[in-house]
Amino acid sequence: MESESHRDILDENLKKLLAAAGKEDSAFQARLLGAVREEVRKERSVILRRRVFRGLCAATGIAAVLAIAWFVVGLRTENVGQFQPIYGMAEVVDGGASRTIMSREPIRAGWSIRTLSGSKAAVLLKDGSRLTLAPRTVVQIVDGKRGPAVALKAGAVDVEAAKQQAGKRLMIETPGSRVTTLGTVFSVRLGTKPDGTRKTRVGVTSGLVEFESGGQTVRLPAHTEGIAEEGRSPEKHLASFELNEMLRLIGRNEELAGRLNKRAGSPAIIQYQDGSTATIWTVIRLEDLGGTGMGARTLRLKSPAAGAKLFTLDGREIPVMAQGRSLQVKADALDAGALQAARLIVELPDVKGVFQTGDDGTSRVRLPSGAADTVSLIQFHLPGTAKIGRILPEPVESTRTLNRLAVTVASETKGLEVFE
């Protein structure tokens, strides 16, 4: 509605305009004033309708933005798995607010979960993967486009990754590192050095993972582990202490043979178990594996073995099809990598007759000899409380920990006589 003040001002201005034009106040002026006033009213009505329309459009736009934002937030906060307590309590942080959880409940994307001291919990992801959180562990879980992603911010997590669908993968991220898998069993541990540098350690139990750090990526098969400091390339090691030690012995054996101008034999580890039984790790050459003509290779042992294992030098386990006196493996399991190395590591548990125990309770072992042009490093793993009376040849290295005494000798032998 047009206000009276605006109308009076308009009339006064029109009268002044007509007077200035030399027109007298007459019926003509009255009609002219009415016509101009009506046109002004129509124009103001149009302007008002435009303002209302623009206001409605703006309100509609805001509503649309809010609807889109709500939809996006809804996507980001959808359920990505389920929390499952094992023992103790845990905390969940959502949008800065934390609360204690002690029972099964859904987990939404973006939530952070923290296990307390003395507590342990599991997270069951939608794809079937299971994460086991150690005490004092913090993880944040999101549901990414290429599969679930877990940010490990502190502590350690054991992962049983389900087989991923095509184009999908499970990813574990730590400061400066990323672990990617298509389906395997592995663990990720995040530590901090005294200088504050974060260190990621990945241990693979089965399957294959990719470990990326410092712009470099390594592939970790079963029985291997990767270690990387924040911002640095990962280092690859064999997860088993004995396998790592075997690799070290192989390198040292070749170095020693070169210095002595001798041939390098087959280094070995003899782990004492009881009065007469031991577990043996030693190196064999592919030429020691005979063909069966049925797509298999066979290693003939002097004594029957149960639970024997074969490994490539990069830590990959080769399935053993048959045990006993003849260990059989599929010929196609020995890939180009193993063929290039031309060597394998064999683990023989429960080998009897290695140590002879006397009436006085002492155990003795006699190493083969008779190859003066060859040298082999033999390492004994004994209980940490073991006492050595006499050992020949003289040890080239001896280390003792709380639970283990490791003694290494350089023997003039081609290796242990465990296979024919």
Overall domain count: 3
Distance between the termini: 112 Å
Apparent shape: elongated
Q: Characterize the largest beta sheet: strand count, sense, and whether it forms a barrel.
A: 17 strands, mixed
**Can you count the beta strands?**
31
Question: Beta-strand level of the residues, as a percent range?
Answer: 35-45%
Determine and state the CATH class of the largest domain.
Mainly Beta
Mean pLDDT, all residues:
79
Q: What structural category characterises the helix and strand content?
A: alpha+beta
CATH-derived architecture of the largest domain: Sandwich
Helix content: 10-25%
Radius of gyration (Å) = 40 Å
- CATH topology title of the largest domain: Immunoglobulin-like
Task: Map the helices and strands.
Layout: H1 4-20, H2 27-76, E1 79-87, E2 90-94, E3 97-101, E4 105-108, E5 112-115, E6 120-125, E7 130-133, E8 138-144, E9 147-160, E10 170-174, E11 177-181, E12 185-192, E13 198-206, E14 208-213, E15 216-221, E16 224-229, E17 235-238, H3 241-260, E18 263-264, E19 268-272, E20 277-285, E21 290-291, E22 296-305, E23 309-311, E24 317-318, E25 324-330, H4 336-341, E26 343-352, E27 356-357, E28 363-364, E29 374-383, E30 395-400, E31 404-411
